Please model this.
Amino acid sequence: MDVSVYLRRAAFAAALVAVGAGLRVWPLDALGDRLTYVTYYPAVMGAALYGGAFGGGIATLLVALLVFFWTPQGHDLMRDDVDLLGMATFLVNGAMICVVGEILQRTRRRMAEALALAHRFGEALDQIPTYIYMKDRERRYVYANRPTLELFGRTEKTLKGAQDTEFFPPETVSWLKAIDTRVLDTGANTAEEVVSTGPNGERRVFWEIKTPIYDSEDPGKIWGLCGISTDITEREQREARIEESEARFRATFDEAAIGMALVGKDGSFVRANAALCKLLGYAEDELKAKTFQDLTHPDDLEADLGLLAEVIAGKRASYQMEKRYFRKNGDVIWVLLSVATVRDAAGEVRYFISQIQDVSERRQMLERLREQANLDYLTGLHSRRYFIERGAQELARAIRHDKPLSLLMIDIDEFKQINDTRGHRSGDQVLRHLGRMLGESLRSIDLCGRLGGEEFAVLLPETEANSAAEIAERLRASVAAASVVPEDGPAMRYTISIGVTTLAHKEVNIDTLLGLADQALYQAKRSGRNRVCLAPES
Model:
C-alpha cells in the first residue's frame, strides 16, 4: 500500500488520541479514574483499530509516552502502580488491536478489489456480442449478460428465477431441457445447434455451448450450468446461399455445352467438364495429369503465358484469345479461350476458370473467306489488294537483304475485240486460260495477280533483269502458241504484251514499280503488241 495511506491513518489515529487526552483533563474529573476508561482508552483503541499495524502502532506508542510523561494542569495521567499495570495491559491490547485492524484493512481492501474485478468482468461480459447466462440445478436463470437481457426483454432483477418456458416456444423448451439435463446429470460439455422461432415467427438458429458449474463447497456436486449462445442465423443463411451458388455453378460447369476447366496457378487441370474432355479426347483423370502448357501449340504459348502473367499481377481481371490445342490423337484445333480468376480474401489467385469453345469450323470458314477475298473469283489468281500488300512485303524484304526483284505487267492484246466478236463468255474463258498458264509456268515463290480487266502482274523475287526478260519472253511465246476452245464456237488464239521492270535502288515502293512496269507495257503496245519491253532501271 502507498506510504501516504499509512501516514493518513496514523494522523487520524493521533487525532483520536488527542481527543481522548483532551477529555481526560477537562474539569470532568469528578468521574474520577473511570474517565480514562470511557474517553481516553476507547479513543486509543479506536485509533489502533483504524490505523492498523503501522498507524495504530504509532498511535499506541505515542499514547504510552504521553501517559507516562505528561502532567497537564497538575493532573498526573499515571496515578499509581495499578495504572502502570493498566498501561502495560493497554500496550499489549493496543498491539493486538493493531494486528486485528491490519487484518480488517487488508480484508476490506481485498474485498474492494474483488468487487472491482467482478464489476469489470461483468462489464466485459456485457460488451461481448453473444448470449451468456447461468442457471441453477432447477434450470432457473441466476445471471445473464446485457445482450441476453435485451433478447429476453428483462432486467437483471426480473430475470432471476425465470425459466425457458417464459422465452421460447414449447418445442424449443423441450430441446433446451434435454441439453440442460445432459449437462446437469452427467457433467458433460455440450456444443450443438438449437433452432427456435421468434415472436414474429422468424426462424432463428443458435450455436449453444453449455458446461457444468460445480459447487465450491462440494466439488463433486454440480451446482448449475453456464451457457454461451451465438446467433448464427445469418451465417447459416449465408452458407446456404453459398452452397446453393456452388450447386448452381457445379450444374452449370458440368452440363455446359462448351468446355470448362478449373486451372491451378501452375497450369494444371484441377477439374474439367465432360464437354472439354470430349473436345480434347482425354478422360478427366488424364487431363488432371497434364497442364495447359502441355496441350497448347508452341506458337501460341508465349502470348497465352503473357496474358496470364498480367492477370496474376492484377493488371487485368480476365482475358480472351484464340489459340490452338493439341488433341489426344495429335490433331490441332482452334479454340476461343476465356479466362477469369478466383482470388482468396488476401487477393491471391486461387485458380482460374477457363471456358474453351471450339472455333475450328469458324476459323476454317474465315480462312476460306480470307482466301476468297484475296483471290480473283474468275482466274483463281491473287486479287489486286492482296497482290499489292504481298508485293510491298516482298519489296521490303528484297531491299532489306539487298536481293534482286523484278516485276512483269501483262495485258491481253485486243481483248475488247474478243468480247465484242465472240462474247463475254469467251472473254472469260481467255482470262481463265491465261490465269492457268501463269500458275503453271511460274515458280512457287513468284506472286501472280489479276489487277483488273485483262491486266495481270507477276512479281519475281530474287530475279535479275535479264532473267525476268527471258521469263517474260517464254511466257509470251507460250501464250501465242496456245489456243482456247470455247464451249460454243471454234478455237481461237490470243496474244499478250509484257512490260518488265527491275529493282535498281532502295528509294522505291510497290506503286513506283507498278508504274514503271506499266510504262514498259504501254511501250510494248505501241510497238505492235505481242512483245516484251523493258523499263529503264528503277
